């Protein structure tokens, strides 16, 4: 059982929340014939447990969290947790939550309090477009409602609202707001945050095509859907940078940089699910409406890349 007080554990181990570094995978959720595909899920987690990942996130954007009902999300967590344990892989497991309303998001935290997760990745409220004061109030209320660590998920192009660095830094003062998945897609905003953040506040980039650039500017790692493919190569780039081998890291990134464009050429996670399906890791590339299968044209580009052709993989 993952401790409900993952935060406490982290504090005891290391006051700089060192668990929030490295390559984190926002896992796809396999579906088959309209249902959660538990067999594929177990196989997938077992596969990635053998890869150099430092954390796993369920039910985020890539995991189609908004398409899952509560029972499915709970099964998703328990199967993943069991597969990780069976594989002997001890890494943090975060659950993605999103909502437009603070009260309902607090209820989601209460409902999931006994689930076997380490912490939460929580988006800014979408659709309602609150002010910075409202965003501060939202995340403060969430932080008050759980002892678990919260990673803020700032993704303005999906939620319609940008959490400004001033607000982020105020929220960073809360003990269990431990970092951000930065999808601001604004290198200037990201760099400003990286320069001003406290040492115990993690910044993980969520922009796959900025992975290398964010690391060179000081990001602690990435939450990177593209790392479903070429996982070891993504991890190696960070390891090389840490070891001071910048030329090696850049050479690796030069080879890999086209992959995120291919995997995001149509709405995610369609292309990634297609790749995983063709690789035999999941039994179906199925998604739930409003997500639809990728086009035949993109499928053929992915087939080519998998065969060792163009586009970086
Ligand atoms: O699922 C996620 O979390 C991710 N979301 C980003 C997105 O919204 O597209 C991309 C990132 O790779 C992972």
Automatic annotation (TrEMBL):
PANTHER family cross-referenced by the UniProt entry: 4-HYDROXY-2-OXOGLUTARATE ALDOLASE, MITOCHONDRIAL, DIHYDRODIPICOLINATE SYNTHASE
Gene name per UniProt: dapA_3
Primary enzyme class: lyase
Family stated for the protein in its record: Belongs to the DapA family.
SUPFAM superfamilies assigned to the protein according to its UniProt record, in alphabetical order: Aldolase (SSF51569)
HAMAP family: DapA
Pfam families per UniProt: DHDPS
Chain positions of site Part of a proton relay during catalysis: 61, 127
Record field: transmembrane: none
Active site: 153, 181
Highest taxon in the source lineage: Bacteria
Record key words, sorted: Amino-acid biosynthesis, Cytoplasm, Diaminopimelate biosynthesis, Lyase, Lysine biosynthesis, Schiff base
Residues at which pyruvate binds: 62, 223
Keyword Isomerase on entry: no
Catalytic activity: L-aspartate 4-semialdehyde + pyruvate = (2S,4S)-4-hydroxy-2,3,4,5-tetrahydrodipicolinate + H2O + H(+)
Enzyme Commission code(s) on record: 4.3.3.7
Major localisation: cytoplasm
UniProt protein name: 4-hydroxy-tetrahydrodipicolinate synthase
Subcellular localization(s) per the UniProt record: Cytoplasm
Organism: Devosia nitrariae
Biological or metabolic pathway of the protein: Amino-acid biosynthesis; L-lysine biosynthesis via DAP pathway; (S)-tetrahydrodipicolinate from L-aspartate: step 3/4
